[in-house]
Amino acid sequence: MLTPVDSEVAFTSSPWPTVAILASYLLFVLKVGPWLMADRKPFDLRGFIKAYNIFQILYNGSVAISTSYILFVLKPYDLTCPITLPQDNWLKGAERFLSNAYIINKFVDLLETVIFVLRKKDRQVSFLHLFHHIAMVLYVYIYGTLYGPGGSVSLMMLMNVIVHTIMYIYYFLSSISPAVQASLWWKKYITIAQLIQFAGMMMYCILILSQPDCQAPRPVAYVAGSLSATFAVMFGKFYYRTYVVKTRKKV
Question: How buried is 141 (Cβ within 10 angstroms: 0-12 exposed, 13-18 middle, 19+ buried)?
Answer without folding.
Answer: buried
